[in-house]
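Hi W., the magnesium ion complex you wanted:
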Amino acid sequence: MAQMIHSDVERLMLSEEQISVKVKEMAEKLDKLYEGRTPVVVCILKGSVIFYADLIRNMQTPVELDFMCVSSYGSDTVSSGELNIKKDLACDIRGRDVLIVEDIIDSGNTLYKLKKILMERKPASLNIVTLLDKPERRVVPMEPDYTCFEIEDEFVIGYGLDYAEKYRNLPYVGVLKRSVYEK
Ligand code: IMP
Ligand code: MG
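Structure:
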């Protein structure tokens, strides 16, 4: 079925269908990884909320849900390099298997710092799954354990990702027109 594309979108990068196929595959991999265990699956608000909801619904493994809100971005498209914890986890992760669910890894700053903070809490294990990865943009050594899609260095929106808090509810991932942020 033809998809209605938002007028601020330059081009469609990942369709709903492509995303859904990949999310199901990823859920199966994670089921194998966590077989017989109950991981705490951490949603990094707000960008990963859509991916998170789809991913956990495709997992058969029992999971506990928790949420964190961190930011290293304002309404700009370049990372500031600083991590601000706006909302911390509700549960104690000491001795637990923890899976961090992220929307996109760009410079790597956010996850690099977040991983350090969470490792200090002594989880039994900590894995990172990301929907998108822009490996070309990395400024710190930060490799996710699981990646759904590696993408080129372009600013994308939709399926949870925003530009200035907009476009998160688009069901696909699209490249934002430069004219929207280069005004
Ligand atoms: P990093 O700290 O540079 O790796 O940035 C990670 C965060 O930057 C993500 O969680 C997003 O919120 C944001 N981000 C990076 N690239 C994009 C993009 O192309 N579109 C939307 N948000 C992005
Ligand atoms: Mg963002």
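Residues 47, 72-73, 79, 102-110, 155-157, 161 surround inosinic acid (ligand 1) (CB under 6 Å).

W.
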